[in-house]
Amino acid sequence: MRSMMLVPLATCMALAACGKGGESVSMTNASMEQVAEVQTAKLQPGQWEMRMEQISSETTGGSGNLPNMPKMPPSTTKICLTEAQVNDPKSIFGGAPQMQKNCVYDSFTMKDGKIDAKLHCTMGQIKVEGSNTGTFSATEFTSDSQSTVTGLPGGITTKTHMKMDGKRLGECQPGDLKAGDTKAPTAG
C-alpha cells in the first residue's frame, strides 16, 4: 500500500514541476488538473532517465509490534515522453487517477527554475500530506519530496522522504517504456 501511494505522489509532484526556466505559476487550493491546465512549461519530448531514492521511511502506530518497512532501494528508469504527453500534462499523471481526483495543492509555485509545492489528499480514512521543492528546466529536474500518510488500517502512520531527478537523454528509441505504462514493453 505504502509504495503504491508514494511513487505516484512523488512522481506527480515532480512532473508537475517540470518546465522551462522563466515560466511562472503560483496557485493556492488548486487541483492537480487546474495546475496542469495553467502552466505552459513543458518537458522536452524524448527519452528520459528518472532516478528515485528513498532517503528515509518511518512507520508508527498500529500494534507496536510492526517493524518499519524496509527502505526501497534507489531505482533508475528510462522512459519515453511523447510529444502528445508533454502537450497534455494530465496524461503524465495517467497512472494516478485517484490522486488526481482526491488531491489538492495547498500551494504550488514554480518560478525562475524552482518549485515549491504543498498538497494534501483525502481518500476515505486515509490522508496524505506532501511537500516538494526542487529545480526544473525543459531537459532536467530535481525533486525533494516529503510525505506523511495517516489513517492506514490499525492506526498506522508513515513518513517518507524521497529524492527524484530526471534528465533528457535524447530521442526515444523503439521499444522504450512510455510514461504512464504500467508494465515493461515487450521485446522485439
Structure description:
- This protein is α+β, with helices and mostly antiparallel strands and about 190 residues long.
- It has one domain.
- Helix content is about 20%, strand content about 45%.
- It contains five helices and eight strands; from the N terminus they run αβαββαααβββββ.
- Strands 1-4-5-6-7-8-2-3 form an eight-stranded antiparallel β-sheet.
- β4 and β5 form a beta hairpin.
- The longest helix has 16 residues.
Question: Which terms summarize this structure?
Answer:
globular; alpha+beta; 188 residues; 46% strand
* Global shape: globular
> How many separate domains make up the residues?
1
Task: Name the structural class.
Answer: alpha+beta
- Termini gap: 33 Å
Whole-number average pLDDT?
77
Spans of at least 5 consecutive residues with low confidence: 1-15, 17-22, 184-188
| Count of runs of 4 or more consecutive helical residues | 5
Query: Strand-residue fraction?
Result: over 45%
Rg over CA atoms, rounded to whole Å, is 16 Å
DSSP, total strands: 8
Describe the main β-sheet briefly.
8 strands, antiparallel
Q: How much helicity do the residues have?
A: 10-25%
Widest sheet: strand ordering: 1-4-5-6-7-8-2-3
Element string (H = helix, E = strand): HEHEEHHHEEEEE
